[in-house]
Write a structure and sequence with these properties.
The complex is a heterodimer of chains A (about 300) and B (about 240). Chain A has about 300 residues and is mostly helical. Chain A has eleven helices and two strands, in the order H-H-H-H-E-E-H-H-H-H-H-H-H. Chain A has a two-stranded antiparallel ribbon. In chain A, about 50% of the residues are buried. By secondary structure, chain B is α/β, with parallel strands linked by helices. In chain B, strands 6-7-8-3-9-10 form a six-stranded mixed β-sheet, sandwiched between helices. Chain B is globular and about 45 Å long. Classes of the chains: A mainly alpha (about 300), B alpha/beta (about 240). Bound molecules: adenosine-5'-triphosphate and magnesium ion. Adenosine-5'-triphosphate (ATP) binds near residues 37, 39, 43 and 86 of chain B.
């Protein structure tokens, strides 16, 4: 049981990286971005491209930080994946969502457009890479460490948790300490007043996409390290990240973080009682329950 | 000298209908001008139009000798006009200090002196600078809103009902602060429900009704005018 909770925390940190971006986009851009899961998939495959094609091609040596399953190639691929997806997210906003905003389309239209975008991204990845399950480093034995309380955990999983927490702390410092971060919080608080204050809200929106896309990409890469890659991986994360977002009160970054852990733990613990294929159903059930009992989420006001 | 001139402006929120009809107003350098009138007269709409949140459909607005109608709000802010909206005029989850920093968002120079000036004007804000604006009382929130607007060192300040919802003792202290701000050389347009009080501290006043000019005169004259008293000053 304790082991499942630990696995849940690892899964939860990946869900949280998706949920934080989703909740920020909802708060500042004003709609539910159904393409958010595809940002995760996109990040995972960009890193795959860098690790298995780009870096070998330029002759960058292979290495591995034993006992972790990856080495310097992944260290380079990780920020590249985040940056590429960040740019893609901004581009998607400029060519699609911004046009709809200019037409004063409502949140439902924008959400539907994002659903369409998600299909296009997923299919593009499918066409390029095929539908196979892929490892960053195939054929590697990944022994688990024995921790006290008979918890078995792979070193990669400890890394995943630490990496996610590191990114969340970076985000926190960005929002609290930098001028752009404060302006982002101001815009989230009151967009009209931000405009009156002279904050260029379109620029804030671009930053929001960059951060949301970058964090989702990080989540995708971490999931790829933990498990494996598949073009549908991000789509399968969509329900958990929505559940985490709603649970933590839509628009609340710290709520999304907590929500991510709660959903991750619930999903993993459920495997003690249910077949693992019901994991998504568990996230979905939690989401429905929250919507029925406390639609404003745990941190929302009455 | 006229610093701001609204010249026969018509404006509205939707293409088909106007809220302001051929409205004109002048603000001279160093003046406080009050805009009074019944609910829905278009007072807030007038300030929004001056600040570029609404685009005039006809007429023009000039700041000194430059036409500013049609410019984006942040451009108008850069030219020295600050605006305090009637409602939702602070960032509730930001601290007082952060609210003031946001006020200086478009400044690239060192604004610490300006912040000290704002804190000198509103000492209570300095005491609570790390408190979230959403937790403050209405009066303190109004001070944050004004402080935020002053961070740009504006030449013209547009205030939309700064005393709305405040207890009477805070009303007079807010009005005192407005006089202090004016004494530092800021020209002010103030929209007020507390019409009598507002006229008492201002140089001139404009009466609006249904988006049109009804009357404008020196404040004393408006205060002495029986009809204005009966219709707009509550007796
Ligand atoms: N955002 C808006 N969209 C459409 N119509 C609006 C909007 N804001 C105000 N109006 C309308 O414009 C008219 C003038 O409103 P305005 O807020 O300018 O009046 P006001 O004189 O400031 O009144 P109050 O004393 O109540 O603040 C009203 O009929 C109002 O219904
Ligand atoms: Mg008003």
């Amino acid at each position: 049981m304790i082991e499942l909770i630990v696995y849940g925390i690892v899964l939860g940190s990946i869900i949280a990286l998706g949920a934080i971006g989703l909740t920020m986009v909802y708060r500042i851009v004003g709609f539910a971005n159904f393409a958010h899961g595809e940002f995760m998939t996109g990040g995972a495959y960009v890193a795959l491209f860098v690790v298995t094609i780009l870096l070998p091609w330029i002759g960058f040596p292979d290495s591995r930080f034993v006992p972790l399953s990856f080495g310097w190639r992944m260290v380079i691929a990780f920020p590249i994946a985040m940056a590429v997806v960040a740019i893609l997210a901004i581009a998607l906003d400029k060519i699609l969502y911004k046009k709809l905003r200019a037409k004063k389309s409502g949140p439902v239209i924008l959400a539907m457009a994002s659903l369409g975008a998600s299909f296009i991204i997923r299919m593009t990845i499918l066409i390029i890479w095929g539908s196979d399950y892929i490892f960053y480093r195939p054929g590697l034995m990944r022994p688990a460490l024995d921790l006290p309380l008979s918890v078995k955990i792979r070193p990669d999983q400890i890394f995943i948790f630490c990496a996610a927490i590191f990114l969340v702390i970076l985000l926190h410092l960005f929002l609290k300490r930098t001028k752009m971060g404060k302006a982002m919080r101001a815009t989230a608080d009151n967009t009209d007043l931000a405009l009156v204050t002279g904050i260029d809200t379109e620029r804030i929106i671009a930053w929001t996409w960059a951060i949301g896309g970058g964090l989702a990409a990080a989540g995708g890469v971490l999931y790829g390290i933990d498990v494996q890659l598949h073009p549908g991986m991000g789509w399968n994360f969509l329900i958990p990240i929505f559940a985490a977002t709603i649970l933590g009160s839509i628009g609340n970054i710290y709520g999304a973080l907590i929500g991510g852990f709660v959903i991750g733990i619930a999903q993993q613990v459920s495997t003690a009682f249910l077949a693992p294929t019901y994991k998504l159903a568990v996230a979905f059930m939690i989401m429905i329950l929250i919507l029925l009992i406390r639609p404003q989420g745990i941190f929302g006001k009455e | 000298m006229t610093i701001l001139k609204v010249d026969s402006v018509s404006a509205g929120y939707v293409p088909e209908s106007n809220i302001l009809h051929d409205l004109s107003l002048e603000l001279n350098e160093g003046e406080i001008v009050s805009v009074i009138g019944p609910n829905g007269a278009g007072k807030s709409t007038l300030l929004k139009t001056i600040f570029g949140l609404l685009k005039p459909k006809s007429g023009k607005i000039q700041l000194k000798n430059e036409v500013i109608s049609g410019l984006k709000p942040f451009r108008i802010a850069q030219k020295g006009v600050s605006y305090v909206p009637q409602v939702n005029n602070v960032f509730p989850s930001l601290t007082i200090q952060e609210n003031l920093e946001m006020g200086a968002f478009i400044r690239s120079d060192d604004y610490s002196d300006t912040m000290e000036e704002v804190y000198t004007l509103f000492p209570v804000l300095k005491e609570r600078k790390n408190q979230k604006a959403g937790q403050l009382s209405g009066g303190q929130r109004q001070m944050v809103a004004m402080g935020r607007a002053l961070m740009l060192k504006p030449e013209v300040l547009l205030l939309d009902e700064p005393s709305a919802g405040l207890a009477p003792i805070f009303v007079s202290s807010i009005f005192d602060k407005i006089k202090e701000i004016n004494a530092t050389g800021v020209s002010i347009i103030i929209v007020e429900q507390n019409a009598k009080e507002a006229l008492k501290m201002s140089h001139r006043g404009y009466v609006l009704a249904m988006g049109q000019n009804v009357l404008d005169d020196k404040s004393d004259a408006l205060l002495a005018n029986e009809e204005v008293g009966r219709l707009y000053l509550g007796g």
